[in-house]
Design a protein that fits this description.
166 residues; Arc Repressor Mutant, subunit A; two-stranded antiparallel sheet; 63% helix; 9% strand; globular
């Protein structure tokens, strides 16, 4: 059964508020980290932590941003000591990016802060409700990604799925 226009609108507004809250939380976390890990650092450091060394173009894809934006942001992270470059052994013209010990420490600190804030925000929830929320958010993220990569919405009043993130 399709969602009603009222439900779609409520979800759209709620998701936009959630994204803004997430951005605010990232900014607050950044102010607590030594060296001030910029808010854009989190989505760039995570793939380097999980996947290991990456080219800037691959990192941009993983972070969902344009390679020119990633390049500027990586340069800032490099200057701050969160990432380092090394030559790509497969192609001497390219370089690979690697997270540094300082970058790993920043992620660890940021994770702890995020976990503390989440625990505080959900203190009145029982574990089953919080687990159900996590499952639903995972499902929502999968469906949003699918919608974003699907054909563009028609001009008949449908909104761009990426607009939810704004």
């Amino acid at each position: 059964m399709p969602l009603s226009p009222e439900t779609r609108e409520r979800l759209s507004v709620s998701l936009a508020q959630l994204v803004r809250s997430g951005r605010h939380m990232s900014s607050r976390a950044a102010t607590h980290l030594h060296g001030d890990l910029p808010s854009f650092g989190w989505p760039l450091l995570l793939p380097l932590e999980s996947d290991g060394d990456l080219r800037c173009s691959a990192l941009a894809v993983r972070a969902g941003i344009d390679v020119s934006v990633a390049s500027r942001q990586v340069a800032a992270l490099e200057r701050a000591g969160y990432v380092e470059r090394r030559p790509d052994p497969q192609d001497g013209r390219a370089s690979l990016l690697r997270i540094t010990a300082r970058g790993l420490e920043a992620l660890t600190t940021s994770r702890a802060l995020r976990s503390e804030w989440t625990g505080t925000a959900l203190a009145g929830w029982d574990d089953a409700d919080a687990h159900r929320l996590a499952d639903l958010v995972d499902r929502l993220l999968t469906d949003i990604e699918r919608a974003v990569t699907a054909s563009p919405p028609s001009a008949a009043g449908h909104h761009d799925p990426q607009a939810v993130a704004g």
